[in-house]
Please model this.
Amino acid sequence: MNKTISNFLYIGSGIGFTLKLTFGGVLIGIMGGILLAVLRYSGIGRSFINGIISFLRGTPLLLQLSFIYFIAPDIIGHRFDLLSAGILAFGINSSAYVAEILRAGIESLPKGQFEAARTLEIPRFYMWKDIILPQVVANTFPAMINEIIAVLKETVVIAMMGGMDIMRRAQTVAAEQYEYFLPLCMAGIYYYGLVLLIGFIGKKIENRNYYVKNL
Amino acid sequence: MLKIYNIHKVFNKIKILENVNLDVKQSSILGIAGPSGCGKSTFLRCVQKLESIDRGTIECGGRTGFMFQDFQLFPHMTVLQNLTYAPTLKDKKKKENYKKQAEDILMNLGLAAKINEYPSVLSGGQKQRVALARSLMTNPDILLCDEPTSGLDVSTTMDVVTLLKSVNEQFDVTIVIASHDLDFLTKISDRIILLKGGIIAMDIDPRIHEAPIDFLKKYY
Model:
């Protein structure tokens, strides 16, 4: 029994690493996604941005992570630790998906919102910051929560590179004790618990934002 | 106040406006009538520079304000924020002045109680008035209204007539209204032009005409 508890706690101690990867990645993903979506909608480097998004969505995440962890040091002369490489890879990958979510959100807004901003002589930066993006974020909020959950689940890829996240710890326990069922169930409980928690917090934010409900 | 010389506008090889010439007097109310697709909205959008013109000249002797057919209020902002956001961006120091100006305009338009409400809880007529108030915050010399009565009932339409007339007198604003509602246009306008196939098919003064609606309908 004690062994089960200590295994459970050991696997759970990977939550910090998993959450750093998730939220670090999501933060970069959202910032990158907004940048890509706004530039693309404004017609700046549209073909180039389409190419980047297509490449990021069309190649495996493990490949992108490996590229940043193993090959980037030869190109830029700087070696990332695994956590940083993971955050960067998940963030860059997520930015392509966030850009697509935002594209749908931007295109769903009436053209008149842009025109109203123009007729009121609102500068472009403020139009995006205060008029368009708040509405787009509100419209796409559930999809954004899904994206955070997707990134959380994708972080297991880091286990294949030796990152001590929840999954890797579960695998370590399983390999040491020749017992797979319980460690993998424990990992599943942690991931599912985190997903439920993110969903719950997302719902709370959605309900608290008055205008999100009233768009 | 507003002079239009020989403007042309083509969309996908279809002529929307063709050789339109117009001189709109200061402080007047011009109605633009015509069937759907005749170029009424395009004309207003060209004057507001939301669309480019392919040929011709538009001389605008002042600031323009634009009221959209579907209001286009910012749904995540309160009524007050809708009114004060743009002016405050231009001059943050006058934030309190703009707030006062917005409150005054809203009071005039009977919307004082709705100042902190979001657009989603307003009726069509109230949204209409907020859109008008937002246009007035820019102190326009010319107010361009695109189908201001579409979707409104008869009673609210009459309110819009009264409202726009009072704005015209009180703020000395020249108003150009595009609408397919001939009854509304004859009640409010000093002059009505009928656009058909992108050209001005008729130009009348409804105040001196015996039966302006019947007359315009003949050419519709």
